[in-house]
Amino acid sequence: MRTSGVLLPITSLPSRYGIGSFSKEAFEFVDQLKKGGQKNWQILPLGPTGYGDSPYQSFSTYAGNPYYIDLEALIEEGLLTREECDSYDFGSNPQYVDYEKIYFSRFDILRKAFYRFQPNEDFAAFVEENSFWLEDYSLYMAIKNSCGGISWSEWDEDLKHRNPDALARKREELADEIQFFRFQQYEFRKQWKKLKTYANENGIRIIGDIPIYVAFDSADTWANPQLFQFDKEGTPIAVAGCPPDAFSATGQLWGNPLYRWEYHKETGYQWWIQRLRYCFILYDVVRVDHFRGFDEYYAIPYGDKTAEFGKWEPGPGLELFEAAKRELGEMDIIAEDLGYLTESVLQLVKDTGYPGMK
Fold first, then answer.
1. pLDDT, tens digit (0-9, with 9 covering 90-100), for 290-333
2. From CA 218, how far away is CA 203, in angstroms rounded?
3. According to the 3-state scheme, what is the secondary structure of the chain?
4. In 3D, which of 110, 263, 84 has the Cα closest to residue 181?
5. Is the pTM of the predicted complex or chain greater than 0.85?
6. Which residues are registered as beta bridge partners of 356?
7. Least confident of 22-31, 153-162, 277-286, 341-350
8. Are the beta carbons of 46 and 65 closer than 8 angstroms?
9. 273: Cβ–Cβ under 8 A, 6 or more apart, which residues?
10. What is the distance of C-alpha 36 from the center of its chain?
């Protein structure tokens, strides 16, 4: 049976506070989809954006973007007042997200809500259930903020290389800040769950988006350097991108760290399986970005200024998806198979049974 839907990033929803969020306008959009006979709402990745404000360069593959937390809901909960929300400058152009203003306003007002928040059983359960990623992320963000926002690669050696005593000191020293980041993720998940449930109850499926790569400056790389092609100092050996083509004479230099696929294979691809399992908590269908990279990935020597001198290396292929299927069962996945595709990529898409973008 054929269905149709709309691709609309959360950021593009109307909002009184400068950027789309899980507000009443999001629920109204679901109503609009239902009224129009639509069955799917496709979104972009929900992670907290880093430099350049790209959803494909996130500080965490698991965390949610605190910009999407609906301030109106926090007002209703008594954590904020309307006067406080209206006192901030979130930007004046309704057709443009001013990320600089959002950055300097959103965290400040969320901090006000945090100081009034009383942790309860739901919060404690959320923290416990998500400890496998939340603790590293919250600690990483707290240290990052205390260091003026610089990348973990520039931190003091004991923090950069996760010396247990140094981390214990930071957990004590930054306990309040760590709790602030837990609070953000709790509110994000609570509000997103409410919106997704409403969409599902109205016959709308959420199509999420999982970037194949993580950002270099992220909790994922800092906490799990063994998963990536790093040297002993934590410096990438090679980075991701695409070779020169008709659209770009020097190719695309994305700069994301590449995976040590041999290590992932040794662990039965557990990191990927865990990542996919989490995605199916957030979404009904998952669009896997840059599917070609699982067949072959383009490796560019670290430090190169262009993508001209990279080379293709073998990826994990079908083995990863077979391992995931054994643990997770059938998965509703869309393979992002855009761009130039080789016979082996086309065969991989066919072997997985996943539909492509067409």
1. 999 999 999 999 999 999 999 999 999 999 999 999 999 999 99
2. 35
3. CCCCEEECCHHHCCCCCCCCCCCHHHHHHHHHHHHCCCCEEECCCCCCECCCCCCCCECCCCCCCHHHCCHHHHHHCCCCCHHHHHCCCCCCCCCCCCHHHHHHHHHHHHHHHHHHCCCCHHHHHHHHHCHHHHHHHHHHHHHHHHCCCCCHHHCCHHHHCCCHHHHHHHHHHCHHHHHHHHHHHHHHHHHHHHHHHHHHHCCCEEEEEECCCCCCCCHHHHHCHHHECECCCCCECEEEEECCECCECCCEEEEEECECHHHHHHCCCHHHHHHHHHHHHHCCEEEECCCHHHHEEEEEECCCCCCCCCEEEECCCHHHHHHHHHHHCCCCEEECCCCCCCHHHHHHHHHHCCCECC
4. 110
5. yes
6. 335
7. 341-350
8. yes
9. 323, 324, 327, 328
10. 29
Residue 44 corresponds to which tokens in the numbers above?
A: 């972009």
Longest dimension (CA), the chain: 60
Structure tokens at 191: 């509000």
| Residue 319 near residue 265 (C-beta atoms within 8 A) | yes
Residue 145, token pair as written in the block: 């903020």
Pair of tokens at residue 267: 């662990």
Distance CA 357, CA 287 (A): 9
And the tokens for 156?
């003091």
Residue type at 300 in one-letter notation: I
pLDDT higher than 90, residue 121: yes
